[in-house]
Amino acid sequence: MKKGFKRYAIIIAGGRGERFWPLSRFNNPKQFLKLFYKESLLKLTKKRISKIIPLNYQRYVIPVDLKKKTKELLNLKEKNLVVEPQSKNTAIAIALASFYIKRELADALTIVLPADHLIKNEEEFYKCVNFAFKIAEEDYLVTFGIPPTYPATGYGYIEIDSLLFKEDNLVAYQVKRFVEKPDLEKAKEFLESKKFLWNSGMFVWKISYFLKQVERFMPSLYEDLKFLEKRINKKNEKRLLEEIYQRAENISVDYAIMEKAERIAVVKGTFDWDDVGSILALERYYNKDEEGNIKIGAVFNYETKNSIFYTKDLPIFSFGVEDLIIIKEKDLIFVSGKKEFEKIKNFLALLKEKRDYQKYL
Predict the structure, then answer these.
(1) Strand-pair partners of 325
(2) Is Transferase given among the entry's keywords (predicted)?
(3) Which terminus of the chain, N or C, has less C-beta within 10 A?
(4) CATH architecture group of domain 7-277
(5) What would the pLDDT profile of 166-181 be if each residue is shown by its tens digit?
(6) Which residues share a beta bridge with 271?
(7) How many CB atoms lie within 10 A of CB 19?
(8) In what order do the strands lie in the sheet with 324-328?
(9) Domain limits of the chain?
(10) Percent helix, strand, coil in the chain (nearest 5)?
């Protein structure tokens, strides 16, 4: 191990990217796609974090079915992988990775980040991360809040309280509360108040302090993982982990811990951040024509407005439509209203019930 180095990264890389369907599929989810740059979101995340956390200290949490794909794409070793028997949200994923790290270094500092976000002006990001690591030393759970630039309804929000820490142009506040994705009117209020930040879903903390919160707020899971810890690298480790996941609660770390703990700090991000959460994010990265259309591939429009078109083979022709999403993949054609697309998860839930269509998920 690098002498004196105590910083680790936990990368949550097992999401299925349902809000990017049909471009994102169960076996080839969003983080593997090259929609925005010449490299996948997952590879960009590895490059970004490797500038401050060496690969030896990176842990990628993935479901077992994505292990081979992730390992080969990123050229990882077994020790870089924390393999889940199934996906069960972020609370157990982060807790499991934390127990593995604790075995190596009990007082490690850790940054937790999703594998499928985009971050620009990375030097500012690194400054914010280093600032957050200093705050975490004081036994705070630290998150990153992004100043809103428009009344977004697709992000959760963080309401800030009193100023806790300041360093040059960087500031961190006590978190007053976390707020679920608001409707448009509420989002406008949040924007105008200047007391709310977008919740980026990235965290920094001491492993020891985080696990104390797991013990406090998720005692059953803590005891299960503590029991598992003694059996890591032993014959029945895999079976025990499967049993733990079967009975574990399907809950995010936000709900399970962040909304309940007291010592929560939020660093106000000075970097550009985008979770590229759904297909609608394409509008932020591709040029629109004079009628507001995004056209990726061979597309011909006439009297067509504010629509998104995507094809890699057959051309798409449109006439007299607006506010649509039309995607041509090798095995399917998908058409949706843009406003209705926010309900895509409901639509996919219906598809899951249809045996003939499950292969398209």
Answers:
(1) 308, 336
(2) yes
(3) N
(4) Alpha-Beta Complex (3.90)
(5) 999 999 999 999 999 9
(6) none
(7) 21
(8) 294-296, 308-311, 324-328, 333-337
(9) 7-277, 280-360
(10) 40, 25, 35
